Amino acid sequence: MGNTLLEEARRLFGKNIALAEPLSKHCSFGIGGPADLFLSAADIRLLREGLAFCREWSLPYFVLGRGTNVLVPDAGVRGMVICVRAGSVQFDRNRVVAQAGASLQKLARMVAERGLAGMEFAVGIPGSVGGAAIMNAGAHGGWIGEPIEEVRLVETSGGGEVRLGKSDLRFGYRESNLRRFPGIISEVILVLHEDEPQAIKERMDQFLLLRKLSQPIRCRSAGSVFKNVEGQAAGRLIDLAGCKGMRRGGAVVSHKHANFIITSGGATYSDVKALIEDVREKVRAAHGVELELEIIDLGDWA
Ligand SMILES: Cc1cc2nc3c(=O)[nH]c(=O)nc-3n(C[C@H](O)[C@H](O)[C@H](O)COP(=O)(O)OP(=O)(O)OC[C@H]3O[C@@H](n4cnc5c(N)ncnc54)[C@H](O)[C@@H]3O)c2cc1C
Fold first, then answer.
1. What is the pTM assigned to this prediction?
2. For the segment 17-53, what is each residue's pLDDT rounded down to a tens digit?
3. CATH code at position 114
4. Which residues of 202-224 are buried (b: 16+ CB within 10 A; e: fewer)?
5. Of 85, 135, 173, which is best to mutate to test ligand 1, by the most ligand atoms within 8 angstroms of its C-beta?
6. pLDDT tens track for 137-166
7. Catalytic site includes residue 174
8. Does any ligand 1 atom lie closer than 6 A to the CB of residue 85?
9. In terms of domains, do 111 and 63 share one?
10. Contact call for residues 169 and 177 (beta carbons, < 8 A)
11. Do both 93 and 176 map to the same domain?
């Protein structure tokens, strides 16, 4: 990367830009090499300016939320990582405008305190609102696509704002058509319904308890590694195939939840990738089923 480009990035973005920033610091797996340029976009203007910079210098870019669903290569990511940190939340009765960088689980608690239901499922999901929207994050029979009324994006090509209403949006199991729109999600608008705050709290406590009992929440992971297959829980298939406790270097298949790979100090991208292939092979042999990744592998993206 040329000196002129780096100087220009420093001049434009000041303390918001970091060079050769280790992505291990920004991902829940805690592994992954450096991003050439790492932009912390604390407001929507910076999203626009980051995209404009990438256009001007023909740089590839990757959008990062809270890094709780990504696997980053040890060699890192070339170009710019734009980390969406803009996270304000505004209420107009039961209509909530959340910037994409807001914490999903904090939002779930904020709306619950106001007696608004529809986000209980999100308690314990550690991502951002933008990451949740694009992945259609969900749990306990709920998913974020349901209460979403509108998604706003900053367009890649011209930096303009695109507004997608309910009729433009499609949400499926851990996917949405938001991936097809070239841009960065800047805001998500949710419409929730009123309920007794105590009843909402009880549902959330119950969900959190279930999570604590069934998931290794204190360990480093990216949540479920594989998608469920035709109604069958991937975790159960992996468990029945005898994969719990399988290890590659610093990566191990959790004993508590077989669909979680947990990483410890010194774990590498190659460890996790090798373990993913080991699990796939065992599940293929045991059940004749091909597991598909739920996590985003930035190695594939690169
Ligand atoms: C302990 C644990 C438990 C989990 N439990 C669940 C669960 O129950 N259900 C569930 O669905 N998930 C779960 N997850 C996975 C993860 O938290 C969700 O998928 C979350 O919504 C991802 O958000 P993020 O901000 O971390 O996204 P990231 O990991 O940063 O990114 C994920 C993808 O979204 C894209 N992206 C992120 N932000 C934007 C944006 N603003 N605009 C455009 N693209 C964007 C990225 O480019 C990437 O492709 C869990 C993870 C962990 C670690």
1. 0.96
2. 999 999 999 999 999 999 999 999 999 999 999 999 9
3. 3.30.465.10
4. ebbeebeeebeeebbbebbbbbb
5. 135
6. 999 999 999 999 999 999 998 889 999 999
7. yes
8. no
9. no
10. yes
11. yes
